[in-house]
Design goal:
Blueprint: H1 2-17, H2 25-32, H3 36-48, E1 52-57, E2 60-65, H4 73-90, H5 95-108, H6 114-126, H7 130-135, H8 137-144, E3 152-158, E4 162-168, H9 181-198, E5 202-210, E6 218-225
Antiparallel strand pairs: 1-2, 3-4, 4-6, 5-6
């Protein structure tokens, strides 16, 4: 009996490894052919054993494996930082150009947004309300910034057509601003995602950077409907 339970858990975790954007209980059930109650039981066990993370996306609970099947995260982040630093040294004061690069990336790279996000986009697209659409950034940002699983995102300002988010404790924030182009690229990607998934033009811009205090580093990003 115990061997069978371990085999079931292994199958579920291996399935999660193939989906870095995470899966819901329903999606795991469909892919493993286990009953939802069985999946739910094993997810509780895996959470207790610190094998998975759970994030709430809209009304869904999405599970992510902590075991990476691909390149080590720290290796990828180190390479991206070196690339960003090189670009800033050789091409300074080109922030808007890097937003344009973000637009291109959003068209050329298939971001692992997943079925849960796709359903949220589909529902939002039918709505005439602007604010719920702008708030989606808080949910889909991690689908393309997959280097920073624990990044904190909060709303600091909101009105009828624009919203400002605060991104705290980013690995790409430090006093010399060596890696700041990352956020301009991210702004371009954000504009592209809104246009492609919601047919909505937005302007995404950096409003404020606080990176002098090592314990409190954040960047404020504004998204405004056009």
């Amino acid at each position: 009996m115990k061997n069978q339970q371990e085999e079931n858990k292994r199958k579920i975790l291996e399935t999660l490894e193939d989906y870095p954007f995470g899966l819901t209980i329903k999606e795991l059930s469909e892919k493993t052919r286990f009953h939802r109650n069985t999946i739910s039981k094993y997810m509780s066990i895996c959470e207790a054993e610190d094998l998975v993370d759970k994030k709430e996306i809209a009304a869904a609970s999405v599970y992510f494996t902590k075991k990476r099947k691909y390149l080590r995260k720290e290796l990828v982040v180190s390479f991206i930082k070196a690339l960003l630093f090189g670009l800033k040294q050789k091409k300074p004061n080109q922030e808007e150009k890097y937003k344009e690069i973000g637009h291109i990336i959003s068209k050329e790279f298939q971001f692992p947004i997943g079925n849960t996000h796709a359903e949220v986009f589909k529902k939002a697209k039918k709505s005439k309300d602007i604010i719920p659409k702008l708030k989606l950034f808080q949910h889909f940002y991690n689908s393309f910034d997959f280097f920073q699983d624990t990044l904190e995102i909060t709303i600091v300002e909101l009105n009828n057509h624009k919203i400002t988010f605060r991104l705290e404790n980013s690995e790409f924030l430090e006093p010399s601003e060596k890696y700041l182009y990352f956020f301009y690229i991210a702004c371009g990607i954000t504009e592209g995602i809104y246009l492609q998934n919601l047919n909505m033009k937005v302007e995404c811009s950096i409003q404020h950077i606080s990176n002098s205090d090592e314990s409190i580093r954040y960047i404020d990003v504004r998204i405004e409907a056009k």
